[in-house]
Specification:
By secondary structure, this protein is mainly beta. Helices cover about 5% and strands about 45% of the residues. It has a 22-stranded antiparallel beta barrel. A five-stranded mixed sheet has the order 10-15-16-13-14.
Length: about 1000
């Protein structure tokens, strides 16, 4: 009985305790505001209930509201660049928080190969471009966003065609026969930057440089979070035989914990040609034709007037639009980012366009405390209806643009039925450019699945392991057809084809990372094993002599002559990589890297290559003697040296191969001949680059001014070339590692925070780079390869460039113009007054190949970019200027359209041609068959300064009826709207030879670059 009161007391106490706990654990809505130290509301702050899946983010004013929060819960407030804060709710329904800047986290984190590093701890030469910079200009290819934004990176838009070819050179041209394009790594997956190896279609016009699809245009620029460009050997050595041309790392957007965000980004606009060329009108052309023929082909030229403006007929104002919808969010354990994009660009040439649809899914899931899985997947479907811009069709004067320049203005564009006219008589061999645009099918359909899945395991607090498996699956179909309205089709009663190219690349990587801090010593050790392989299968069928043009290439069985072909090729690369980063007091930094690559491309005696690098950095600003000075707020000296390789060499060249010589008659039987194609070279290996770099990073005025200067020297040896061998061997040459080239230069970049107040902000970013390139060795037996001598395996080697030791790659070669022979001059036999005269350089009294010399250099003296970003309250303005100084252009068409051979239209300047009454000393007389040679007259200055982009935007106040929006911005953008140049062609940014290493700066009238005006909208809710 005595224990009863105690039991009752205990029971009542327990009930009271439970009741108290219940009272304290009641849920409520917690509201508040998150501000910076200066009192400004901070939008986008993640507010998470610790240990729970619930959370939200602050609005544009820094306010948040979180329902159903237990009183015993803890709220975590976090934002990139600020110290996180955790608050216990208790009985508070309103919790205001001030986040302080985290000076350590504020430092830019730079993505490097197989990891990240704080910018202050970086030992290599790396340039970074953020997503905001890519969005400034409407682009189909993210590489266009690199243009003039990263020092040491030269980007050339080879073609203005939608999705067209782009060349990127990081610190110069490094190869002759191999690729000089950098390696691109998308979320850890390496891909080639070469032009898409489009499937053949047997149309008769092959792969037109003016239309060639860049494989990188299949990636959506709006999905990119950041781009890092690795330039020196210290940064690129982790990619071994693939790092010689530099590496571009692309990181796509991933989810962030908090409330789900839905974002729409879209724009629409129009583009048009920047300028047209001045050509002869119908009256001028008729007078020239009469003079050329020596008879009145046109009885009264003056009556013909302007005639047909063929450029006006083929160029149009092309609409362009882009729409992207993305969803992002998640919890502390599961994050997602999903986006869908549609891009549609009509070209400035009629019937040319590029359309792309894409979907991207990035997922991250923290399965347990020590185990995380994730994926990055992108699928794109694109259709490129390409204009055959410059290629010659079956010997007739060629593509759309060339046809528009050559076509007689005296001819009519269409007949009475509205069909393109077929030229006849004297102009039979010329195509109606409208027919080339409307009666030629040249379409590429590309399907691409790119992605990987990964798993991260935290074995101990210091040791982590990542396994990833990825694939890049590309299916490309090319459809082609040329109807009877185009000469190439008319001569064979229609010609067309269909080709398929399936390229499947798979990758596995295993990565171990050990990070340990012992006192003042910080070690980070990374080891990687990777294996990547690719299989490419192509097939093509083409036909000629169709009964009609009704179904184009959709029934190739109707053709009387059918040709089929197929091909398969494979390669594999196994790699072992190790890297050690050592950090002493964040003052002395050391990076050691080594990689071993084994490639199936190499010869039997050189299957594996070793690629080491070393880099050191000294943060001078951390020394005691720098602490009391007030000039420099940061200063770091970097030095590096390393060896990288270029394994992007032609497949199977180390092996003895067989090839078909076609059909021949043997014993009255049709047979296919097989012969030995080359000499085996078991010593064939990668091209090797050794690069030294010294750099200085420093900041002034509390880093409001930041500078980076780099100087480098890169020597590339074992370049692939053909060397002549004794004909008694049965072969004319052997392919091997014989050449060498050197690049050296200096890069300078600056970032200036001119103003930074609550209402007005002004930032300036600028960079300037200069590179000097020269060939240092050909093959030990020659000092030069002149046009027409030794092209072979060197590559597409045309008559406009020369390989000469001591001179830059791509140097132009030809004669020196010396005026016009005048009446009374001592004129050589075979020449007459009015013909072009060339300098007799060797003084032998005759003009021959010995009188040729180097007449130009396509490599620029320097190139630069400057961006001004201004913000005033809700308004923002960005102005981006790019420029190239020096670098010459070989303007091929001046050879024909100012050469006086005529028979086709000429530049308007030929109105001032030589005649007995107008003894011009520059423009020759018109005459059939006169000798016109490649000379310095065709070389022009390619310098230009271009206002690449100007964007004016306004962020709409999202209050009142718009309070449901987190952000809303409208903008207008003008692109390529103003260019200052002396170049007389369509545009100084041109290279119709595409990504060729030798034929640089060649303008053979490709697809011109356009200017555009767009309006856009960005909304987040």
């Amino acid at each position: 009985m005595k224990f009863l009161p105690f039991k009752l007391l205990l029971g009542c106490s327990l009930l009271l305790l439970v009741g108290t706990q219940y009272a304290f654990a009641q849920s409520m809505t917690v509201k508040g505001k998150v501000s910076t130290e200066n009192g400004e509301g901070l939008p986008g702050v993640s507010v998470i209930v610790v240990g729970k899946p619930s959370g939200t983010t602050t609005d544009k004013d820094g306010n948040y509201s979180l329902p159903n929060v237990q009183s015993d819960a803890k709220l975590s407030f976090s934002y990139i660049g600020y110290l996180s804060v955790t608050e216990t709710v208790g009985n508070r329904s309103k919790i205001d928080v001030i986040l302080k800047l985290d000076t350590k986290l504020l430092e830019d984190v730079v993505v490097v190969g197989y990891g990240t590093v704080k910018k202050s701890d970086l030992t290599g030469a790396v340039s970074s471009i953020k997503a905001a910079e890519l969005k400034v200009t409407p682009i189909a290819n993210f590489v266009q966003g690199l243009q003039a934004r990263a020092s040491g990176v030269q980007v050339t838009q080879n073609s203005g065609a939608p999705g067209g070819s782009i060349s990127v050179r990081i610190r110069g041209n490094n190869s002759i026969s191999g690729s000089s394009e950098p390696l691109y790594v998308v979320d850890g997956f390496p891909i080639s930057g070469g032009d898409n190896p489009v499937a053949g279609g047997g149309s008769g016009f092959g792969n037109d440089n003016g239309n060639r699809l860049s494989v990188l245009s299949t990636l959506n620029p709006n999905d990119i979070e950041s781009i890092e460009v690795l330039k020196d050997a210290s940064a690129t050595a982790v990619y071994g035989t693939r790092g010689a041309n530099g590496v571009v790392l692309i990181t796509t957007k991933r989810g962030k914990a908090g409330q789900t965000r839905v974002t729409y980004e879209g724009y629409s606009g129009q583009q048009q040609i920047r300028k047209t060329l001045d050509l002869m009108n119908a009256s001028e052309f008729a007078a020239l034709e009469n003079e050329l023929a020596g008879q009145n082909l046109f009885p009264n030229p003056a009556q013909l007037g302007e005639g047909t403006d063929w450029q006006k007929e083929i160029f149009q104002k092309g609409g362009m639009q882009s729409h992207q919808l993305s969803f992002s969010g998640g919890t502390e354990k599961s994050l997602f980012n999903v986006s869908m994009n549609y891009f549609d660009q009509n070209g400035i040439i009629i019937n040319s366009n590029f359309k792309r649809g894409s979907i991207r899914v990035n997922l991250d899931n923290q399965v347990t405390k020590n185990f995380k899985i994730g994926t990055s997947l992108t699928y794109t479907y694109s259709v490129n209806n390409g204009a055959v811009a410059s290629t010659l069709l079956d010997g007739a004067s060629g593509g759309i643009v060339l046809s528009a320049l050559y076509a007689p203005p005296t001819e009519s564009p269409r007949d009475a039925q509205g069909k393109p006219t077929m030229f006849s008589g004297r102009y039979l061999d010329f195509n109606n450019p409208i027919a080339v645009a409307s009666e030629v099918l040249n379409r590429n359909t590309t399907r691409r699945l790119l992605g990987n899945i990964f798993a991260d395991w935290t074995i101990t607090k210091d040791l982590t392991y990542r396994a990833s498996f990825g694939g890049d699956l590309i299916g490309d179909t090319r459809d082609s057809y040329v109807t009877r309205f185009v000469r190439a089709g008319a001569t064979v009663n229609g010609t067309g084809g269909r080709g398929n190219n399936n390229t499947n690349t798979i990758l596995h990587e295993s990565l171990l990372n050990y990070h340990k801090t012992i006192g003042i010593h910080d070690f980070n050790v990374t080891g990687v094993f990777s294996t990547q392989s690719q299989t490419q299968v192509t097939d093509a069928m083409s036909g000629q002599q169709f009964p009609n043009d009704l179904v184009f290439n959709d029934n190739l069985g109707q053709a009387s002559i059918v040709t089929i072909g197929s091909n398969k090729q494979q390669w594999r690369l196994d790699s072992y990589t190790g890297r050690v980063n050592y950090n002493l007091k964040s003052k002395y930094l050391l990076t050691l890297t080594a990689r071993v690559d084994g490639s199936s491309r190499f010869g039997a005696n050189n299957k594996y290559g070793f690629f080491p690098s070393v880099a050191g950095a000294w943060r001078i600003s951390e020394e005691k003697f720098m602490q009391n000075q007030k000039i420099f707020s940061d200063m770091k000296l970097r030095v590096s040296y390393g060896i990288t390789g270029n394994a992007d060499i032609p497949l199977y060249n180390s092996l003895a191969r067989l090839s078909s010589v076609g059909n021949y008659n043997f014993n009255n039987t049709r047979s296919i001949g097989i012969l030995s194609a080359n000499i085996a070279n078991p010593d064939l290996r990668w091209e090797k680059s050794g690069q030294a770099d010294i750099g200085l990073d420093f900041g002034l005025l509390n880093n409001r001014l930041q500078f980076t200067i780099d100087a480098y020297q890169k020597k590339t040896t074992d370049l692939l070339l053909s060397r002549s061998v004794a004909l008694s061997s049965g072969y004319g040459s052997v392919f091997g590692n014989f050449g060498a080239v050197e690049n050296k230069g200096i890069e300078f970049s600056v970032t200036a925070n001119v103003a930074n107040t609550s209402d007005f902000k002004w930032d300036i970013n600028g960079n300037i780079s200069a590179n000097r390139n020269k060939l240092t060795l050909i093959d030990g037996t020659r000092t030069e390869i002149i046009p027409g001598d030794g092209g072979g395996s060197v590559g597409p080697f045309t008559n406009n460039s020369i390989l000469r030791v001591g001179q830059p790659l791509g140097s132009f070669y030809g004669y020196i113009f010396d005026g016009i022979y005048q009446t009374g001059d001592n004129i050589p036999t075979g020449r007459v007054a009015g013909n072009i005269r060339y300098k007799d350089l060797n003084g032998d009294g005759a003009i021959s190949a010995a009188d040729q010399q180097i007449i130009g250099d396509p490599n620029p003296n320097y190139y630069f970019g400057i961006t001004n970003n201004l913000k005033y309250k809700g308004f923002d303005l960005s102005v981006f200027v790019q420029g190239v100084q020096g670098g010459q252009i070989f303007y091929v068409q001046r050879l024909r359209m100012e050469g006086g051979a005529a028979g086709f239209n000429q530049f308007a300047t030929m109105v001032n041609r030589w005649t007995p009454t107008n003894p011009s000393n520059y423009y020759p007389k018109v005459a059939q068959g006169q000798r016109i040679n490649q000379s310095d007259v065709m070389i022009e200055d390619g310098s230009f300064v271009r206002f690449k982009n100007a964007t004016l935007g306004y962020t709409v106040p999202t209050k009142g009826k718009l309070s449901w929006l987190n952000n809303a911005r409208v903008y207008v953008s003008a692109n390529n709207f103003l260019t200052f140049t002396k170049y007389s062609g369509y545009d100084p940014e041109v290279n119709t030879a595409g990504q060729n290493n030798l034929n640089l700066g060649v303008d053979n009238i490709g697809y011109p670059i356009a200017k555009s005006l767009i309006a856009g909208l960005q909304i987040t809710f």
